[in-house]
Every structure is written in structure tokens, then in C-alpha cells.
Amino acid sequence: MKPIKLILDTDVGSDCDDMMAISYMIAAEKKGLVEPLAITLSHPADYAAAGIRGLYRSYGAKVPAMGQMSKENPRDDWYCKKIYEKFGEESDLEPVGDAVALLRKTFVESDGDVTLCAIGPLNNIADLLESKGDDISPLCGVELVKEKCSRIVLMAGGFLPDENGKNVPEWNVKVCIERSQKTFELCKNDIYMLPHEAAHTMVTGKYAVETLGDKTPLTYAFLSFFNSVGRSSWDPATMLWAVEGNRDLFTLSEAGRVTVDDIGTTDFCPDENGNCYIIGINRLENESFTDAQKRAAAYIDGAVNEILGI
Questions:
Q1: Which of 88, 85, 21, 28 is nearest to 61 (CA)?
Q2: Mean predicted confidence (pLDDT) in 298-308
Q3: Distance CA 194, CA 212 (A)
Q4: Residue 91 DSSP code
Q5: What range defines the domain where residue 230 resides?
Q6: CA-to-CA distance for 39 and 87, rounded, in angstroms?
Q7: Cα–Cα distance between 206 and 231 in angstroms, integer?
Q8: N or C: at which end does the chain have fewer Cβ atoms within 10 angstroms?
Q9: CA 182 to CA 261: how far, in whole Å?
């Protein structure tokens, strides 16, 4: 089976689960399951690219082309600068180009069967969809993505109602509400969403951190993020689904449409003509939801621990 060609859009630096997701992607690449074409950064911290370069070097892997969003973003960098200071090389600070230009170029140069996986706020995705024809391609962003992208996989949304029956806004959506609305409004591709509640209590990284402490960029990122020994697995679970699909770990909803309101609440309405699907956790016979999450977490941990050598 051919590897999945994939572009990753990540807000690395804002939470350590991004580093776990990238580590799983590297493990999957080493097994021939995925071919990462590019990484774009939706969190323009000064050391974000350096943090990723340090992580890749720790695994002996080649870093894909990288691009960075151009908009201001005030969120904190919890660990990328620290990774550079502890593990970095001077070349890690080489600047990267514009994210949308790299996305457009990567799609143009692809064979049209690319998965776009976004595990952070949707700034880059909306900007790509709104992009105009240029010297890279005469197609506008919506047309280019429709032609060249086989599917879009998002860590986004929340469909678990609160005590008032209202879905709880999810962080990736509510920090860029207008950009999220624009993404769902413009996108003509199939969108697969792993929501907050699917992986909030799915913990990965605990054994690695306890075993290796601050000796690797991955585990140092965990310790730098509120001294985390294990972390919720929103991003690595999304990446796992993007690369390997349901397996016996996930389920997929019927087709529908997703809307985002002005406070970041996401709503899903079943519609056979819709382009959105919700990823859920698969429970085997007589299995609790918690045990099903533990199975998925163990799969991710196993893949990452193997390349960590533990």
C-alpha cells in the first residue's frame, strides 16, 4: 500500500500534544505509512520551526519543507525556545517562508491525492481557501484545494452539550472564530473532524516522560508544558486517524454539515449531501469508553516509544 501523502498544519509551541502528533507522524513515516510533504505553522512563535527541527533531528529524520503564518498571534510558546536552547543547532533558526505560499506550491506539485491535516487554529486553512490565483497557480484557493486535496482532517469542534444543552466551544475554533466560520463556509472538500470530547481523557506520553525525563525534545516539551507527565491526545489521535483511518479504534459519523456560531460553538446537522464527518472512539464488545480510549492511546504510545528506543 502506498503511503498517505500528507501536509500538516500545526500550532506547535502552544500545547505539547502537537509534538506527540509529529512524533507519531515520524514513526509512521519510518514504517512507510505516510509521506509528509510539508509542515505549516499556525502559531508564529519565534522558535516554532527550531523546535520542530530539533525534534526531527532527535529521531534521525529529515524535516519537510516548512512555512509560517504571517498574522500576529499572541499565544505563548511553552517549549520551542527551550528545546532550541537545550538541543538546538544554529541552523535551526533559519527562517521559513509564508505558509499559504508553501501550501499552494505543495498542492500544485502533488499528484492530487493529498491529505491536509490541521491540528491547530484554522488561520492558515482559511487563508489558503481565500487565496487568489498567482504565479504558483492560476486557480484560487478553493479550486486548488478541491482539485489537489483528497480530504481535510481537523482537530476541531466539540459536540458534547453542557447542562444547558449547548455544545461547548472547542479551543482551536474559538481562538479564531471568523477563520473557522470561513473554512466551513468555503471548503468544498470532505472534512473529517476529531472533536474535543473524543480525546480529552485519552492520555499519551506518560511512560516516555517517566522513562526519559528531559533527555529528548518530545519529553522535554511535555515537562515544559505545566510539567506534564502525559497529556490529552487530541492532536496525536487526529494524526493517527489521518494516517491509518478507523482501524478498530475509531468510528465515523454519517455525512452532515457543520456550522460555527459567533462564540465558537460548533453544531453538526446530518445531511446526506453534506461534506463533514465526525470521528468518534470505537468501543469493542463490553468495552467502556475509557478502555477504548486507553487502547488508542496505547497504540500511539507504542509507535512513538519504538522510535524513542524505549
A1: 28
A2: 98
A3: 29
A4: G
A5: 4-308
A6: 20
A7: 7
A8: N
A9: 11
Number of domains, the chain: 1
Grid coordinates representing 21? Answer: 502528533
For position 74, what pLDDT does the model report?
52
193's torsion region: left (phi>0), alpha (psi -120 to 50) or beta? beta
Across 24-121, where does the E strand assignment appear?
A: 34-41, 65-68, 97-98, 114-118
- Alpha-carbon gap, residue 21 to 23, rounded angstroms: 5
pLDDT grade, residue 45 (50/70/90)? confident
- Whether 66 and 96 have beta carbons less than 8 Å apart is answered as yes
pLDDT, tens digit, for every residue of 63-122? 999 999 876 655 689 999 999 999 999 999 999 999 999 999 999 999 889 999 999 999
Which residues sit opposite 203 in a β-bridge?
A: 232
Backbone angles phi, psi at 58, to 5 degrees: -65, -25
Which pLDDT value is given to residue 43?
A: 83
**Residue 10 and residue 80: Cα distance in Å, rounded?**
13
Angstrom distance (rounded) from CA 90 to CA 84: 9
Q: Please give the pLDDT value at position 164.
A: 87
pLDDT at 11: 96
Contact 33, 96 (CB under 8 A): no
Report the pLDDT averaged over residues 197-222. 98
Number of CB atoms found within 10 A of residue 255's CB: 14
- Does residue 227 carry a pLDDT above 80? yes
At 242, give phi and psi (nearest 5°).
Answer: -60, -35
What is the Cα gyration radius of the chain?
18
Spatial distance between the Cα atoms of 281 and 201, rounded to a whole number of angstroms: 12
For residue 71, the domain's CATH number is 3.90.245.10
pLDDT for 72 = 64
pLDDT of residue 118: 98
The secondary element (H helix, E strand) that includes residue 277 is strand 276-281
Residue whose C-alpha cell is 477563520: 179
Give the integer Cα–Cα distance in Å for 215 and 211.
Answer: 9
